[in-house]
Design goal:
With about 475 residues, the protein is mainly beta. It folds into 2 domains: about 110 residues, Immunoglobulins (Immunoglobulin-like, Sandwich); about 300 residues. Helices cover about 5% and strands about 45% of the residues. It has 2 helices and 41 strands. The strands form 5 sheets. It has a 26-stranded parallel beta sheet that branches. Strands 2, 3, 5, 8, 10 and 11 form a 6-stranded mixed beta sheet that branches. Strands 1-4-9-6-7 form a 5-stranded antiparallel beta sheet, with no helix packed on it. A hairpin with a 2-residue loop joins strand 10 and strand 11. The chain is elongated and about 85 Å long. The N and C termini lie far apart (about 100 Å). About 0% of the residues have low confidence.
Length: about 475
């Protein structure tokens, strides 16, 4: 009985002590400024009524005392396009928020706006009222009006009539969007096409995809995560898959961030003044195709920037391919790969003649041993020409051809293993212009340059042409 009484008394004393300690906790008004993990939150570009991802701001109390922040609120109040969550509670206005000494708390931010035009700026501020004045964190986002193309069991998401997309609204594709047989889709300058995760486009037999950008108004095709972090991350969407007998005309476009960029089988493709980069597998995957490309810039593709299978007819004039990657470092990262064979999804192998592969006034370079790799199949035509071009070549048999003393005289006035001296070849700040002391300067064939008289940004190259897409 005595032990029970002592135990009961001990519990009472403990409860009393804890209660006293809790009562002793006091929160003062801050006497120093709060510190934030960032002073501006740049939110992902968002679309009409589509909620953004969640962003975090960390608030630090650097004082040696517990403080009570009198007020944390959105400057625009309940009318703000933004919503915040302060220390686990959602809302737009918070009073008397405690923050222990030398501690921190999270404020989470998101936006799900109503669009008021094709593109606008959404801005607000989180205001912190303290004893030493008012501090703030700026919230900033670009808001776009959007048109959605959503594949569902009841909606196969097919364009069945000749269609023109203008730049008045962004185009957001969920699932697969199909251009029906013998139908054309024309995409006008400045249009932005966004693909949701695991989404893509299919261009059916006989259909036309015409991407009509201009120097000042590129057409953008990419994943729908617009935060700059995703600019250098592949596999955010699938591919543009072009079926047998379809046609691609692409000018002044930027295509990036998927699994494969252009996935083509027996397609006629004309590609000019465009950027294709950051794909998990291939930038261009061509099976038995006819491809004519000029002023093309490519980088950061896992298997190869260009993959040529079952031969075909290819010409690449004044192209710059620099396959470097900090993300895809364990993959092959070839510049151009060409072979006569192709294996389909069922494992069946078919062969085809490589009638022509012309690499003219171009740069094909990487941090691998060989940037150009050939696998010619005995008994199949495999005709190529590398003229006035700069390539990476290891001198080993892995490239599949001889650079020096080439037996077919298919290497003309070209250069190997001379660093082209790109301004910046990594995708985060990709600038594949070459420096003034680059060995690519003034090395182009004037006659070839005359077929593409201006570079990718409109600069004349009719005299002293530089190799690659930039003069």
């Amino acid at each position: 009985m005595k032990y029970k009484s002592l135990l009961f008394l001990s519990v009472l004393i403990l409860i009393f002590a804890v209660s006293c300690n809790q009562d002793d906790i006091s929160f003062d008004a801050p006497s120093k400024e709060l510190r934030f993990s960032r002073d501006t939150v740049f939110c992902d570009t968002v679309y009409h009524q589509v909620r953004s991802e969640t962003y975090a701001v960390k608030v630090y109390n650097n004082e040696d005392k517990d403080v009570m922040i009198p007020r944390i609120h959105l400057e625009k109040g309940a009318s703000s396009l933004y919503r915040i969550n302060v220390d686990g509670k959602p809302g737009h206005d918070f009073q008397n928020v405690p923050l222990r000494k030398k501690d921190s708390m999270y404020i989470y931010v998101e936006i799900a706006p109503q669009a008021t035009g094709p593109e606008a700026i959404a801005e607000d501020r989180i205001l912190f009222t303290t004893g030493v004045g008012q501090q703030h964190v700026t919230l900033f986002s670009v808001v776009q009006d959007a048109e959605f193309f959503i594949q569902t069991p009841s909606n196969p998401n097919i364009i069945t009539n000749h269609t023109t997309w203008t730049n008045n609204k962004a185009k957001i594709i969920y699932g697969n969007l199909t251009i029906d047989q013998n139908v054309s889709l024309d995409i006008e300058p400045g249009t932005k096409v966004y693909f949701h995760k695991n989404s893509g486009m299919k261009v059916s037999q006989g259909a036309f995809l015409n991407i009509n950008g201009t120097l000042d108004n590129q057409v953008i095709l990419r994943g729908d995560r617009n935060d700059t972090y995703y600019d250098t991350i592949p596999r955010n969407w699938k591919s543009i898959k072009m079926e047998e007998g379809s046609t691609l005309n692409m000018n002044h476009a930027r295509l990036f961030g998927g699994t494969t960029g252009l996935e083509m089988k027996q397609v006629n493709a004309n590609i000019r003044n465009s950027f294709i980069h950051t794909f998990q597998d291939y930038g261009i995957y061509a099976v038995g195709c006819t491809v004519n490309a000029s002023n093309l810039v490519m980088n950061n593709c896992g298997e190869s920037a260009i993959g040529i299978f079952r031969g075909g007819n290819h010409s690449y004039t004044h192209v710059t391919i620099a396959n470097y990657s900090q993300v895809l470092f364990n993959q092959n990262r070839m510049g151009i790969f060409a072979t006569n064979e192709w294996k389909n999804e069922n494992g069946q192998i078919t062969l085809g003649a490589l009638q022509n592969l012309n690499i003219l006034n171009s740069i094909v370079y990487s941090d691998r041993g060989d940037s150009v790799n050939f696998e010619a199949i005995n008994g199949q035509q495999f005709q190529y020409l590398i003229q006035n071009s700069l390539i990476k070549y290891s001198g080993l048999s892995g490239a599949g051809f001889m650079f020096d003393n080439n037996p077919t005289n298919s290497i003309i006035q070209s250069y190997k293993n001379e660093d082209p001296k790109f301004v910046n070849y990594f995708a985060a700040q990709m600038n594949l212009r070459v420096k003034n002391d680059s060995p690519a300067k003034n090395k182009g064939n004037v006659t070839i340059a005359g077929t593409v008289p201006t570079d990718i940004v409109g600069v004349s190259r009719t005299s002293n042409p530089t190799l690659g897409a930039y003069q």
